[in-house]
Amino acid sequence: MSASTVRKAKKLVEEGNVIKIDDELFQVRSSSDPEKSYMVTLDSCDCLGYKNFYKFHHGKGLKANCSHLEAVRIFLQG
Ligand SMILES: [Zn+2]
User: Domain named SWIM-type: which ranges (predicted)?
Assistant: First the structure.
């Protein structure tokens, strides 16, 4: 995962954009568009970047990730 993804994720957490809805469900507000938010579980996100990940990296054995998913991980650790 890229350093910029981690940086973005940390910023989302610091700015209070991660909201816990349930034990395994979180709402993460978009940093670029406050009107937008994504529903994130512990291993999936409904943003376009996450959905497109497997399209672009199909068969490379990589696990999809995005700044929202990473933000939830940081949120849970901190
Ligand atoms: Zn996402």
Answer: 26-77
